[in-house]
Design goal:
This protein has helices at 2-26, 29-41, 45-57, 97-102, 146-155, 157-165, 183-194, 219-234, 254-266, 278-283, 288-293, 299-309, 312-320, 346-357, 396-409, 425-434, 443-448, 451-466, 472-475, and strands at 73-75, 78-80, 84-86, 107-113, 126-129, 134-137, 170-174, 200-204, 243-248, 365-368, 389-392, 416-419, 438-441. The chain is of the alpha/beta class. The radius of gyration is 22 Å and the shape is globular. The protein binds flavin mononucleotide. Residues 276-295, 307-343 are annotated as: Disordered.
C-alpha cells in the first residue's frame, strides 16, 4: 500500500514537473496562471522574487516573439520596438537585464540605485494582496550602490548598445541614500556614474518608503534638483546624452500637479529658467478646471510648452523615426571619450558637432506613477493595512487619471510613461489614450508571470487595429481629442 502511494506520488510529481517544464519552456499563459505562479506564491514574496530574478538571469524564462511594426514607438530620440517596458524595482541592481529583454519587453528599467550600498528596511517588507492582484512594498531602496551596478552594466555595455540599436533601450532609475544630507548631490552622482550607461535616466522622487523623498516633488525643490541634474547630464562626455525623466507619485493634489507641470516645462539646463514675461505667461499650465473644457491638441496651445520641453530638432528626429544612439558608445575602459572621437565618418562627426551646439532641452519625460500610499476602498487582501506603497490593479485608475491630468497640464508635449496596474492590452491602451507614449508593468508579473508581456502586446495590437489606429503614436492622448 505504502509502495503504491509512493509510486502515485512520484508519478504526480513527475507529471507536475513536466507540466511546469512545459509551461516554463513555452510560456503558455494559462499554465503559468494555473500552475507556475501559484507554486511560486507558496514561497514568501521576497524569496519568490529572488528566484524569478535568478531564473531570468539564467535565461530560463520563455522568450518573446518579434514585434509587429504597429507597436513601434519613437520617443526621447529613441526607437522602442514595442511600448511595454519593465518597471523599476524588479531588477534593482542590474542582475538580469538580458534575460528580462528576452521576455519581450521593449525596454527595461534598472534601479532604483542609490550612491552607496544600503540594506533598505527590515524584512518582511513585501506583501501580496492576492485577492486584489496587488502588492504592498516598503523596501526602502535596498541597493547595491552605484559602483556595483556600474560594474555590472559596463560588463554588458556592448550587448546593450546592440539592444538599443535594435529598439530596446535601457533606463536607469536613480535615488538617494536614506542617510544622505544632500539629495541633489546623490542624484547628480547617479547621472555622472550611471548616465553614460543609460538611454534614459529616471529621477525618482516618488517612492513612499524613503523619508522626505516625495517632498522633492514640491515646486522649488524640484526646480532646484532638476536644474542640477540636467546641468550634469549636459556635461556628460557622450555624443548623445541620456534622456532625463522624472517619476512622480499618484498621490498628488491638483496644485502639486500644476507645480510639477510648470517645472518640467520650465527647467532648462545650466540653471536657466525660461524668462519671465511673454514666454513665461505662455508656459504656465492651465488649471485643472480649465482643462476639462479645453482641447489639448490645438497647435496654438501645443506651442505653449513646446519650446521648453523639446527642440524641434529632436522632435523632427522622432517624427521621422530617426534614431541616434544616446549612450556613450565607447568600449569599456575608454568610455570617457566622446563617441565622436571613435573613428566615425566626417559627416557623422559634423552632425555630432552641430548637435552639441544646438540648444539642449530640459526634462524629457515623466513616469507616472509610482506606488500609492492610499488604500482604495474595497481592498480584500488580509495585509492591506501594511504600511508601504500599493501597486497592481487597485492602483490602475489613480495612475491613469494622473497620466490624463499631466498630459493635459503639459499640453501633450512632455512624453509620458504610464505605469500602475497594467495587466492587459486594454489597460495599456487606456493609459496610451490618456496620454502615455509607453507603458510599464511590474505587479502583473507577480500574478501572471512572464507570459503577461506577450499577452499585453498581443491584445494591444488587436485593440489598436480594432479602434482604427495605425500606430501607437496615433493613439497617444486620443481621449483628449
Ligand atoms: C516590490 C516593488 C518594488 C518597487 N521598487 C521600485 C523602485 O525601486 N523604484 C521605483 O521607482 N519604483 C519601484 N516600484 C514601483 C514600480 O516601478 C511601479 O511604479 C509600480 O509598482 C506600479 O506599477 P505596477 O502596478 O505595474 O506594479 C516598485 C514596485 C514594487 C511592487
Amino acid at each position: 500500500m505504502a509502495a503504491l502511494r509512493r509510486r502515485v506520488l512520484a508519478a504526480a510529481a513527475a507529471g507536475g514537473g513536466l507540466l511546469l517544464g512545459w509551461a516554463l519552456a513555452t510560456g503558455d499563459e494559462r499554465l503559468y496562471v494555473a500552475a507556475v505562479m501559484p507554486v511560486l506564491r507558496a514561497v514568501p514574496p521576497e524569496a519568490a522574487h529572488g528566484l524569478a530574478l535568478r531564473a531570468a538571469a539564467c535565461g530560463l524564462l520563455p522568450s518573446g516573439r518579434p514585434d509587429s511594426p504597429i507597436l513601434e514607438v519613437h520617443v526621447f530620440g529613441q526607437r522602442f520596438c514595442n511600448p511595454v517596458g519593465l518597471a523599476a524595482g524588479f531588477d534593482k541592481h542590474g542582475e538580469a537585464v538580458d534575460g528580462l529583454y528576452k521576455m519581450g519587453f521593449g525596454f527595461v528599467e534598472v534601479g532604483t540605485v542609490t550612491p552607496q550600498p544600503q540594506e533598505g528596511n527590515p524584512k518582511p517588507r513585501v506583501f501580496r494582496l492576492a485577492e486584489d492582484e496587488a502588492v504592498i512594498n516598503r523596501y526602502g531602496f535596498n541597493s547595491h550602490g552605484h559602483a556595483a551596478v556600474e560594474r555590472r552594466l559596463r560588463a554588458r555595455q556592448q550587448t546593450q548598445l546592440r539592444l538599443t540599436e535594435a529598439g530596446m533601450p535601457l533606463g536607469i532609475n536613480l535615488g538617494k541614500n536614506k542617510s544622505s544630507a544632500d539629495a541633489a548631490a546623490d542624484y547628480v552622482a547617479g547621472v555622472r556614474t550611471l548616465g553614460p550607461l543609460a538611454d534614459y535616466l529616471v529621477v525618482n522622487v516618488s517612492s513612499p518608503n524613503t523619508p522626505g523623498l516625495r517632498d522633492l516633488q514640491g515646486r522649488a525643490e524640484l526646480h532646484s534638483l532638476l536644474t542640477k541634474v540636467l546641468a550634469e547630464r549636459d556635461v556628460l562626455p557622450c555624443e548623445r546624452k541620456p534622456a532625463v525623466l522624472v517619476k512622480i507619485a499618484p498621490d498628488l493634489s491638483a496644485q502639486d500637479k500644476q507645480d510639477i507641470a510648470s517645472v518640467v516645462c520650465e527647467v532648462r539646463p545650466g540653471g536657466r529658467a525660461v524668462a519671465e514675461g511673454a514666454g513665461r505667461a505662455h508656459l504656465s499650465p492651465p488649471s485643472l478646471a480649465e482643462l476639462s473644457s479645453a482641447s489639448m491638441a490645438g497647435p496654438a496651445e501645443a506651442a505653449s510648452c513646446a519650446g521648453a520641453v523639446g527642440s524641434e530638432e529632436r522632435r523632427g528626429e522622432e517624427r521621422q523615426g530617426g534614431h541616434l544612439p544616446r549612450r556613450c558608445g565607447a568600449p569599456a575602459g575608454s568610455w570617457r571619450q566622446p563617441a565622436g572621437g571613435l573613428g566615425q565618418g566626417k559627416a557623422a562627426h559634423a552632425a555630432a558637432r552641430a548637435r552639441a551646439r544646438a540648444p539642449q532641452v530640459g526634462v524629457d519625460g515623466l513616469i507616472i506613477s509610482n506606488t500609492t500610499v492610499s488604500r482604495p476602498g474595497g481592498l480584500r487582501g488580509r495585509q492591506r493595512a501594511e504600511p508601504g506603497g500599493l501597486s497592481g490593479t487597485p492602483l490602475r485608475e489613480l495612475s491613469t487619471q494622473t497620466v490624463r491630468d499631466m498630459y493635459a497640464l503639459t499640453r501633450g508635449r512632455v512624453p509620458i510613461v504610464g505605469v500602475g496596474g497594467v495587466s492587459s492590452g486594454r489597460d495599456a491602451l487606456e493609459k496610451i489614450r490618456a496620454g502615455a507614449s509607453l507603458v510599464q508593468m511590474y505587479t502583473a508579473l507577480v500574478y501572471r508571470g512572464p507570459p503577461a508581456v506577450a499577452a499585453v502586446k498581443r491584445e494591444l495590437e488587436e485593440l489598436l487595429r480594432e479602434q482604427g489606429f495605425k500606430s501607437v503614436a496615433e493613439a497617444v492622448g486620443a481621449d483628449h481629442r
